[in-house]
Amino acid sequence: MAEAPRAEAPVDTDRLMEQLSMSWGVYLGDFTLAAASENLTASQAKALTVLRRGPAAMRALAETMTCDASNITGIIDRLEKRGLVRREADASDRRVKNVILTADGERVTDAIRAKMRTTQDGLDGLGAEERDALCLLLERVFGCRPTR
């Protein structure tokens, strides 16, 4: 008599947390190396990635990046000096400075993503349905939706 296939035990939260931690470590290492190849720190590259979604006020950018406002000022100063971002006064409140990605900033951001070979290769190994499922699960777990 053929043995019925055994159902695998559901993955527990601790294992999922560990897998997320390891995955984040691989992603971050891949991102950091790609950023360095463009002569950027991971924080500078993260700012460009956030701004790829659209302009942001300095304070909102600091909150999104979970860093102090004074730290974001230094990051944006260095990016602006390289011509990757520019600051503009907000149309409704001239005291607020919005940071906008320049065309060069978009090019560098795209180059960083293209150089993230470990991440790209892993995602390329997924079929269309698996990619859709992963995207939906990440949205559900973390409550955020990509804009691009």
What does this structure look like?
- The structure is a single chain.
- The protein is mostly helical.
- Helix content is 61%, strand content 8%.
- The chain is built from 7 helices and 3 strands.
- It has a 3-stranded antiparallel sheet with strand order 1-3-2.
- A hairpin with a 7-residue loop joins strand 2 and strand 3.
- Helix 1 (13-37) crosses helix 5.
- The longest helix has 25 residues, at 13-37.
- The chain is elongated and about 75 Å long.
- The termini are far apart.
Brief descriptors of the model:
3 strands; three-stranded antiparallel β-sheet; 7 helices; mainly alpha; single chain
In terms of topology, how is this protein built?
Blueprint: H1 13-37, H2 42-51, E1 56-57, H3 58-64, H4 69-81, E2 85-89, E3 97-101, H5 103-115, H6 117-124, H7 128-142
Antiparallel strand pairs: 1-3, 2-3
Helix pairs in contact: 1-5, 3-4
Describe the structure concisely for a colleague.
The protein is mainly alpha-helical.
- Approximate shape: elongated
SSE string = HHEHHEEHHH
Query: Got a strand count?
Result: 3
Give the amount of beta strand, in percent: 5-15%
Distance from first to last alpha carbon: 53 Å
Task: Enumerate how many helices there are, as a single number.
Answer: 7
Structural class: mainly alpha
Q: What is the averaged pLDDT score? A: 91
Our Rg estimate from Cα atoms comes to 19 Å
Show unreliable segments: none
What share of the residues lie within helices? 55-70%
* Major sheet details: 3 strands, antiparallel
Strand order of the largest sheet: 1-3-2
